[in-house]
C-alpha cells in the first residue's frame, strides 16, 4: 500500500528566501507525481506534474524534482513571497492503482 | 474550459439527515474522483469513475455513502443518515489520460464543506 509523507509539516520563512519542501513515498512503482497548492477552505490548484520518466519540471519560480529509486520528490520555491503562503501537497499515482495518494501537506507561511 | 464545479459550497445538516453533493467535471474529462479531506490532513480517496462506470471504491466508503455518474457527465455523492464524523470537505476532481506523453493530471473543484451538527 502506497504511503506518502511530507516534511516539514509547517514552515515559516521571511520573504525572499529560497525554500525546499519534501515529499516521500514508499512504493517506487509510480505513474506520476503531482504537486498542489491549497489555500484555506479552498480546493487544490495544480502546480507541477512530473511523469515517472522525468527527473524535474519547472514553472516560473517553482521547480519540482523526482527520484523514484529513493522514493522522494522535492518542490523548490525561489524568492518566496507572502502570496506563496498556503498548504502544499504532493500526490502520487501508482502504476497499478487508479487513485492518487496524497501526503498530509506542508503549511507554508511567508512573512513580509 | 470552465473548470470543475461543485455544489453546494457549504452544507450544514443535522445528524441523521441525508445530504447530496453534485460535481460537474471538465467537459472532455472521462475520469472523475471523489475525495474527503479533514482539517490538517491530505485528501483521502473515496471513489473513482471512468465514464459512467464506478471502477474503484475505498473501504472508507461505508454503505451510507453512494456515488453515481449517470451518462458519464456530472456525478453525485449521497450520504445517508449523516454522523458527526462525516463533517469534512468533500472534493471532486476530474482528469483525462494523455496519450503523448502518457500522463494523467488531476483538476479539482472548490469542494463542499459539510458540517453535521
Report on this structure:
The complex is a heterodimer of chains A (112) and B (117). Chain A contains no helices and 11 strands. Chain A is mostly beta strands and 112 residues long. In chain A, a hairpin with a 4-residue loop joins strand 7 (62-67) and strand 8 (72-77). Chain B is an all-beta fold and 117 residues long. Chain B is 0% helix and 51% strand. Chain B has strands at 5-7, 10-13, 19-24, 31-37, 44-50, 53-57, 65-68, 75-79, 88-95, 97-98, 103-104, 107-108, 112-116. The mean pLDDT of chain B is 92. Classes of the chains: A mainly beta (112), B mainly beta (117). The interface between A and B is medium-sized, with 26 and 29 residues.
Write the layout of secondary structure elements.
The complex is a heterodimer of chains A (112) and B (117).
Chain A lengths: L3 E4 L2 E5 L4 E7 L4 E9 L5 E8 L4 E4 L2 E6 L4 E6 L8 E9 L5 E3 L3 E6 L1
Parallel strand pairs in A: 2-11
Antiparallel strand pairs in A: 1-3, 3-8, 4-5, 4-9, 6-7, 7-8, 9-10, 9-11
Chain B lengths: L4 E3 L2 E4 L5 E6 L6 E7 L6 E7 L2 E5 L7 E4 L6 E5 L8 E8 L1 E2 L4 E2 L2 E2 L3 E5 L1
Parallel strand pairs in B: 2-13
Antiparallel strand pairs in B: 1-3, 3-8, 4-5, 4-9, 5-6, 7-8, 9-12, 9-13, 10-11
